Amino acid sequence: MSNNTGNSLIALVTGAVIGAGVGILFAPDKGSKTRSKLKEGYKDAEKDFKKKFESLSEEVKNKFATAKVDFEGSYEDLLSNMSYKTEDVISFLEVKLAELKDKNAKLQK
């Protein structure tokens, strides 16, 4: 979701407003025809806006879905790594405990 989409949307709306203003100033047609053309232009701009909004909305949904999957995968990897590390630590502590028991047994003799 880049800033280009927002800039494009602003440019589209600004262009529609400027085009409508210039069209009114230089319109050779009657007022009713000009109003009809303005309505059509407005409807076209509205359709374009809706399409861009729907596209942006879908893009955001997809990015969030992808981020969720990535996060879940990372979380599972983290848990798996922690599980292995925990087993390593337990094994190390068991070895050290056995060594301490041996030293304690020798000291008690």
Number of helices: 2
Number of domains: 1
Determine Rg (CA atoms, Å).
34 Å
Low-pLDDT regions: none
Q: What tags apply to this protein structure?
A:
109 residues, mainly alpha, 2 helices, 93% helix, rod-shaped
Describe the model.
This protein is mainly alpha-helical and 109 residues long. The protein has one domain (30-108). Helices cover 93% and strands 0% of the residues. It contains two helices and no strands. The termini are far apart.
Short note summarizing the structure:
The chain is mainly α and 109 residues long. The chain has helices spanning 3-25, 31-108.
Secondary structure layout plus pairing:
Layout: H1 3-25, H2 31-108
